[in-house]
Amino acid sequence: MAENKIFAGPRIRRIRNGLGLTQTAMAEELGISPSYLNLIERNQRPLTVQLILKLSQTYEVDIGDLRGEQQGSVAELRGVFSDPLLAGELPGEQELLEIAEAAPNAAAGVIKLYRAYREQHGRLSDLSDLLAREGAAPGWPARGCRSTRSARCSRPGRTISPRWKVRPRPCTRRWPPVTI
Question: How confident is the model at residue 149 (pLDDT cuts 50, 70, 90)?
Fold first, then answer.
């Protein structure tokens, strides 16, 4: 018969921190030693049936929450790390599971940042396509003006001061407003 050990250290730590308890105080209420609770919180020891029942009675913890897997987060994190931007950085399954279980808020933050990145990447791509269709040069917005370090502006009649302290006049070309 296969054993299904429950390693729920990060969840136990979140419960303890949420209640504002120290490891010593929680260990006393559960009838275990503080060092054993520390091992449980670091996933060095699995939860016993007696400890799960005591957690449920003492802190009104749903037993199902202790077993709850983070498969949705793991799948989304796998998608994040499979992006070409992060080529070669794909963590293994166990590492992704540890991230999702040990730091679910951090995992959710990474996923949220990645979604925002993909959305902005799509918007930038759409903007580039729009500018290409309208005949804008790839180096927009300053099609006629180059760097302020150059000695000349490619627009007729405009020069840039060679001294760094004197600022050149701004380019007067009007660009259509860009909504991102």
Answer: very low
- 51-94 pLDDT, tens digit each: 988 988 888 888 776 765 566 778 888 888 888 888 777 788 88
Would you say residue 2 lies in a domain? no
Tell me if the pTM is above 0.70: no
Residues 118, 150 within the same domain: no
pLDDT of amino acid 32: 93
One-letter-per-residue 3-state SS of the chain: CCCCCECCHHHHHHHHHHHCCCHHHHHHHHCCCHHHHHHHHCCCCCECHHHHHHHHHHHCCCHHHHHCCCHHHHHHHHHHHCCHHHCCCCCCHHHHHHHHHHCHHHHHHHHHHHHHHHHHHHHHHHHHHHHHHCCCCCCCCCCCCCCCCCCECCCCCCECCCCCCCCCCCCCCCCCCCCC
Alpha carbon separation from 23 to 45, 59, 163 (Å, rounded): 15, 14, 65
Which residues form the domain of 148?
A: 141-171
* Nearest in space to 43 (alpha carbons), one of 111, 107, 106, 103: 103
Q: For residue 67, what pLDDT is reported? A: 64
* Residue where a domain stops, chosen among 45, 67, 89: 67
For residues 46 and 8, give the distance between their C-alpha atoms in angstroms, rounded to a whole number: 7
